[in-house]
């Protein structure tokens, strides 16, 4: 009986130690988004939570009230003090976050940028939603078809310092150099800072400043929905064409009433999932972020880490998807 008791005690202690070790192996991953209250960012957070739950890790979801660099720096400083294991950040500025993110990495924190990249010196790896050149080209091609390749167009972007926006716009400009766009003119680029009211007012300003405007590209989910409302309110449906990057849940109404005949996006839930999955795998030691590494991104499948245009490394989520009347209802309740 004494031997049996001793055996049971050893087994019990072993089980306790195993459960304790399993719990202690869980990591804390912080996702720092451009700003809170942004539906696209909220969807990314939803995906991140799912990915980390599968890995046995914990998510902290934070962002400034408005999309500012200063707000993100303050949050990251606090996360360093909290000794989180990893930070996933979509940057409000390509360079300005580098010093604080280097500080994080010096403290042993794994840093992953996603959506809007941070300079390669301030991260281990970037999770890109799609090929940037393809994103830029598709939007120009779409608006060109809408206006029959003739007339003035404008771009209503998010923030002037946001890496992804600026990269896409540069590829848009490059695409417009093609002779087939000779009768089109990019008259201006304005910035709504991913704020609905400001984006709406910027769109209204475009209508007044450019009475011959034929099309608007808004490569931001906040901007495109605000611009759609502005076009509708101004009675310009059918007179000014609109495309860009939008959430199906926010754009279904505008697509059905012809304010926006087509727009593009990837699944932000999947983007957040993959970004958090990569951060978790870094924490667990399954990957290092080096070029050529292959890994399984949970439910997303197989991926390879490749060299990024900025000299760092990145993972590409996949190609953007076109939404129009033929498929918007299939997606409007998803995200």
TrEMBL record:
<feature type="domain" description="Periplasmic binding protein">
    <location>
        <begin position="29"/>
        <end position="283"/>
    </location>
</feature>
<dbReference type="InterPro" id="IPR025997">
    <property type="entry name" value="SBP_2_dom"/>
</dbReference>
<comment type="similarity">
    <text>Belongs to the bacterial solute-binding protein 2 family.</text>
</comment>
<keyword id="KW-0732">Signal</keyword>
<dbReference type="GO" id="GO:0030246">
    <property type="term" value="F:carbohydrate binding"/>
</dbReference>
<dbReference type="InterPro" id="IPR050555">
    <property type="entry name" value="Bact_Solute-Bind_Prot2"/>
</dbReference>
<dbReference type="InterPro" id="IPR013459">
    <property type="entry name" value="RhaS"/>
</dbReference>
<dbReference type="Pfam" id="PF13407">
    <property type="entry name" value="Peripla_BP_4"/>
</dbReference>
<feature type="signal peptide">
    <location>
        <begin position="1"/>
        <end position="24"/>
    </location>
</feature>
<dbReference type="GO" id="GO:0030288">
    <property type="term" value="C:outer membrane-bounded periplasmic space"/>
</dbReference>
<dbReference type="GO" id="GO:0015762">
    <property type="term" value="P:rhamnose transmembrane transport"/>
</dbReference>
<dbReference type="InterPro" id="IPR028082">
    <property type="entry name" value="Peripla_BP_I"/>
</dbReference>
<protein>
    <submittedName>
        <fullName>Autoinducer 2-binding protein LsrB</fullName>
    </submittedName>
</protein>
């Amino acid at each position: 009986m004494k031997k049996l008791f001793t055996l049971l005690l050893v087994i019990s202690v072993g089980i306790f130690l195993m459960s304790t070790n399993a719990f202690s192996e869980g990591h804390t991953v912080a996702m720092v988004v451009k700003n809170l209250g942004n539906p696209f960012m909220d969807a990314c957070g939803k995906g991140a939570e799912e990915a980390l739950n599968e890995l046995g890790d914990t998510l902290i979801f934070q962002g400034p009230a408005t999309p500012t660099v200063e707000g993100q720096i303050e949050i990251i400083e606090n996360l360093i003090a909290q000794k989180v294991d990893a930070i996933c950040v979509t940057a409000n500025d390509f360079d300005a976050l580098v010093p604080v993110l280097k500080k994080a990495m010096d403290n042993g924190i794994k840093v992953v940028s996603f959506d809007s990249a941070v300079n390669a010196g301030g991260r281990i790896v970037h999770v890109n939603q799609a090929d940037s050149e393809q994103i830029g080209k598709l939007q120009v091609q779409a608006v060109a078809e809408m206006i029959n390749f003739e007339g003035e167009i404008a771009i209503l972007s998010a923030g002037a310092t946001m890496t992804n926006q600026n990269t896409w716009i540069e590829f848009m400009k490059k695409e417009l150099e093609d002779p087939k766009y000779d009768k089109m003119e990019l008259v201006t680029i304005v910035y709504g800072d991913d704020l609905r009211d400001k984006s709406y007012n910027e769109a209204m300003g475009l209508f007044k400043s450019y009475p011959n405007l034929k099309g608007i590209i808004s490569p931001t989910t906040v901007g495109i929905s605000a611009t759609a409302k502005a076009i509708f309110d101004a009675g310009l449906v059918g007179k000014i064409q609109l495309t860009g990057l939008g959430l199906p849940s926010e754009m279904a109404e505008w697509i059905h009433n012809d304010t926006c005949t087509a727009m593009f996006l990837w699944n932000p839930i999947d983007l957040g999932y993959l970004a958090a999955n990569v951060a978790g795998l870094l924490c667990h030691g399954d990957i290092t972020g080096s070029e050529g590494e292959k890994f399984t991104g949970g439910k997303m499948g197989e991926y390879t880490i490749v060299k990024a245009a900025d000299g760092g490394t990145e993972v590409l989520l996949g190609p953007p998807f076109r939404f129009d009347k033929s498929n918007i209802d299939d997606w409007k309740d998803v995200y």
